[in-house]
Design goal:
By secondary structure, the chain is α+β, with helices and mostly antiparallel strands. The protein is 14% helix and 28% strand. Strands 1, 2, 3, 4, 5, 6, 7 and 8 form an 8-stranded antiparallel β-sheet that branches. It is globular. The two termini are 30 Å apart. The model has no long low-confidence stretch (mean pLDDT 97). It binds a DNA duplex through strand 3, strand 4 and helix 4.
DNA sequence: ATCTCGATTGGCT
DNA sequence: GCCAATCGAGATG
């Protein structure tokens, strides 16, 4: 399946978050390939989004949100790595948090890394999927639109599905808009 | 140099 | 449902 081009990401962040559902995140590591269908996302904007890492000034931690679209943006919260994709054109902050995937390839690796037997516990949360797919801060800044990258996002080929939306999870101050998107009735969605 | 906090998770009551 | 774990980095003095 073809890799998503940069133009896919350089649009309104909520639109990208919604359309990322059903696309496929692929990690081609030495140990083996893991991949999964994206089933839950959240959109984060800049200045007037109080929940965003980019709501305040640009720092060593959040600078990637101002870069061009289609780059990996990984940071830690508590003990977990959270994986995001940058959106909007260079200079405009934005990113989409990938909150859950449905495993496709490399399920044996994911089970081992997560130390769980229940497959629904492998990737049904933003910190869970990074552990399962072994995504860490070393992937910060990787170009997800380059077919030679270790980490890429490709088109998917799935039956049509319904999407739902809600307010974002775990944020202390949210906007009025519903900026969380998920595949309806998919068991790998968190909660 | 020290304090504080978080886009989470898992274990225990 | 509640709460501790645990870590980087921004904020403060």
């Amino acid at each position: 399946m073809p890799v998503l081009p940069k133009s896919f990401y350089e649009r309104d962040t909520a639109e990208v978050a919604r359309e990322l559902l059903g696309k496929v995140l692929v990690h081609r590591a030495r140990e083996g390939t893991t991949s999964g269908k994206i089933v839950e996302t959240e959109a984060y904007y800049g200045k007037n989004d109080p929940a965003s890492r980019a709501s305040r000034k640009r720092t060593k931690l959040n600078w990637l949100m101002w870069e061009c679209g289609g780059l990996a943006f990984v940071y830690m919260v508590h003990t977990h790595n959270l994986f995001n994709v940058t959106t909007e054109r260079e200079g405009v902050p934005g990113a989409v948090l990938i909150r859950a995937i449905e495993p496709l390839e490399g399920i044996e690796f994911m089970l081992r890394r997560r130390r769980v037997s229940n497959k629904f516990e492998m990737t049904s949360g933003p910190g869970k999927l990074t552990q399962a797919m072994q995504i860490t801060r070393k992937h910060n800044g990787i170009d997800l639109t380059n077919n030679r990258s270790e980490l890429i996002i490709t088109e998917g080929e799935f039956e049509q599905f319904k999407r739902g939306s809600s307010h974002r999870i775990g944020v202390s101050a949210d906007l009025k808009r519903k900026l969380r998107f998920f595949v309806l009735d998919n068991p790998f969605v968190s909660r």
